């Protein structure tokens, strides 16, 4: 049975609203969600990277996932919106507070760097505006080889007809370059009504140019690959690459831990 995930649910400061979103996600059948903290630096003033709030301080008791006997798993994620290369801070200790690290580049140069250089887990594709650059296959293949995944979020398409056109156009452009591989589908939901069930999301993905098989993987096994990549990134010194086919544990690992991760541990 597939384990469904939504790795981009907007963090909401209002606890009641946040609880409603988490309960809806569990009711729809998502076993894992990630609360997304967005960090958008500006040149005008120095800004502090947000600190994630422990989930037990936000919700007293996590809801049980529909069709399963265990509660939903809630992770924390940081997304850095980059308009300049200085906005990403390699090896920043603040990044280690989060389970997942994503960037949203706003130029072709930054997109290339995110694909080829940055130690991250997810590259977000803008969905609320026309892409300011064209996707090129070489950096996209480089990101795929490094175990980095691309994210397409759908909630903007629900809010506005213009954003719906941008979402479909930008997603189709990405699929033409990556051939539907290493893509995750997320909601980026800001309220419970913007969440959709896993099978509704896979049907929506067909509009983005994904095949039926790739669409199902985009809300399940590819998300798990992103989590495995994040775990090894945070554990080992340097980037440890995982592939989508390594759903249970990276090849050559023992008890789910890579040899490189074991070498990184102090003796």
From TrEMBL:
According to the record's subunit comment, the protein's assembly and interactions are: Component of nuclear RNase P and RNase MRP ribonucleoproteins. RNase P consists of a catalytic RNA moiety and about 10 protein subunits; POP1, POP4, POP5, POP7, RPP14, RPP21, RPP25, RPP30, RPP38 and RPP40. Within the RNase P complex, POP1, POP7 and RPP25 form the 'finger' subcomplex, POP5, RPP14, RPP40 and homodimeric RPP30 form the 'palm' subcomplex, and RPP21, POP4 and RPP38 form the 'wrist' subcomplex. All subunits of the RNase P complex interact with the catalytic RNA. Several subunits of RNase P are also part of the RNase MRP complex.
Where this protein primarily resides, as one coarse class? nucleus
> Which residues are the signal sequence here?
none
Q: Which GO terms describe its biological process?
A: rRNA processing; translation; tRNA processing
Query: Could you tell me which InterPro entries the record lists for this protein?
Result: Pol/histidinol_Pase-like (IPR016195), Ribosomal_uS2_CS (IPR018130), RNase_P_p30 (IPR002738)
* Lineage, highest ranks first: Eukaryota, Metazoa, Chordata, Craniata, Vertebrata
Which compartment or compartments is the protein found in? Nucleus, Nucleolus
Function, as annotated, reads:
Component of ribonuclease P, a ribonucleoprotein complex that generates mature tRNA molecules by cleaving their 5'-ends. Also a component of the MRP ribonuclease complex, which cleaves pre-rRNA sequences.
Keyword terms, alphabetized:
Acetylation, Nucleus, Phosphoprotein, rRNA processing, tRNA processing
Which cellular component, as a GO term, is one annotated location?
Answer: ribosome
User: Which GO MF terms are attached to this record?
Assistant: RNA binding; structural constituent of ribosome
Cross-referenced Gene3D superfamilies, in alphabetical order? Metal-dependent hydrolases
PANTHER family membership: RIBONUCLEASE P PROTEIN SUBUNIT P30 (PTHR13031:SF0), RIBONUCLEASE P SUBUNIT P30 (PTHR13031)
Q: Where is this region: Disordered?
A: 243-267
Q: What is this protein called?
A: Ribonuclease P protein subunit p30
Family according to the record: Belongs to the eukaryotic/archaeal RNase P protein component 3 family.
